[in-house]
Amino acid sequence: MARPSLSSPIHQLYTADQFRQLLASAVANAAGRPWDEQFISDLAQRYQQHGQEMLISILQRHQLTRIAGA
Questions:
Q1: What does the alpha-carbon distance between residue 66 and residue 32 come to, in Å, rounded to a whole number?
Q2: Which of the two ends of the chain, N or C, has the fewest CB atoms closer than 10 A to its terminal CB?
Q3: Bridge partners of 55?
């Protein structure tokens, strides 16, 4: 029996504009918190490389929305 995927491509969860806004909010809110800054920086670099095809896990999505304050 196949297990459900724990990661999804960004395009299944957000439009490009929605994800960019979420990322921008997270960048602003992460300032001064080293772990959050590094996490968001890494995520932004991966998004730059892979765009809307980038995979994001459930836990990464949780951390992103926590940092963004969404």
A1: 15
A2: N
A3: 9
- The H or E element containing residue 66 is helix 58-68
The model's pLDDT over 33-60, given as tens digits with 9 standing for 90+, comes to: 999 999 999 999 999 999 999 999 999 9
> Under a CB-based contact definition with an 8 Å cutoff, are residues 60 and 19 in contact?
no
The gap between the terminal CA atoms of the chain, to the nearest Å, is 35
* HEC secondary structure over the chain: CCCCCCEEEHHHHCCHHHHHHHHHHHHHHHCCCHHHHHHHHHHHHHHHHHHHHCEEEHHHHHHHHHHHCC
For residue 37, give both structure tokens: 């800054």
Distance CA 49, CA 13 (A): 18
Q: Which of 38, 34, 31, 42 shows the shortest CA–CA distance to 69? A: 31
